[in-house]
Amino acid sequence: MRVLAICGSLRKGSYNRSLLRAAAGLAPAGMEVEVVGIEGVPLFSEDLEKEGMPEAVAELRLKGKAADGILFGCPEYNYGIPGPLKNAFDWLSRSHGEPRTPFLGRPVAIMGASLSMMGTARAQLQLRQSLQACGALTMPSPEVYVMRAQDKFDAGGQLTDKPTHEAVAKLMTAFGAWIDKLKG
Ligand SMILES: Cc1cc2nc3c(=O)[nH]c(=O)nc-3n(C[C@H](O)[C@H](O)[C@H](O)COP(=O)(O)O)c2cc1C
Asked: Is ligand 1 within 6 A of the CB of residue 124?
């Protein structure tokens, strides 16, 4: 089973990328996780879209379609989805003449890390709503909200907090089961 893990932050030392890497290491047996970024995705415009799919979008889209499930590492900016992630999401939500986007009818899971005590809860809710608009089958629970991320990772980006470790492992196991269930 293959999972594409999309990091919603462009920051070099991103906690959300570190979180996804930890998730990859905690994936259940038989699940392979590829962590990717959204670097190089241009600002969406329907005019630009008419000119063709930008390379970075095409690559993400192909990887998303080839995966059995998609996992988001969702940061939070100003109580919501950061612009770069929403922008990449909007590109991926377009059908480009095909019957399916990477989201329609597809298993999706979300986790996120932020500096505040809210642990991206507000941004994750917004992302859930946008995924619903695209017909994604987003796993309802367990949820992972990593609050005060600055206390949960070491300087090298390793997840050092045991309860977070356990919560991430639990989500990954549940996501494997969610994917299996939806494959029927
Ligand atoms: C413009 C901006 C707005 C932010 N707003 C929030 C916020 O609403 N809630 C929050 O928990 N953290 C907020 N933060 C702090 C982020 O949690 C922090 O920058 C975090 O490191 C971003 O995730 P990353 O490490 O994956 O890049 C904000 C940061 C920026 C730059």
From this structure: no
Q: Which CATH superfamily is domain 2-183 in?
A: Flavodoxin domain (3.40.50.360)
Instruction: Give the Cα separation of 19 and 73 in Å (integer).
Output: 7
Domain coordinates in residue numbering, the chain: 2-183
Residues in CB range of 25: below 8 A, 6 or more apart: none
The verdict on the CB of residue 150 being under 6 Å from ligand 1 is no
Question: How far is residue 10's CA from residue 167's CA, in Å, rounded to a whole number?
Answer: 24
Ligand 1 centre to CA of 5 (Å) is 19
Q: What pLDDT does 184 receive?
A: 75
| Burial class of residue 72, CB neighbours in 10 A (0-12, 13-18, 19+) | buried
Residue whose Cα lies nearest atom 6 of ligand 1: it is: 77
> With a threshold of 0.85, does the pTM exceed it?
yes
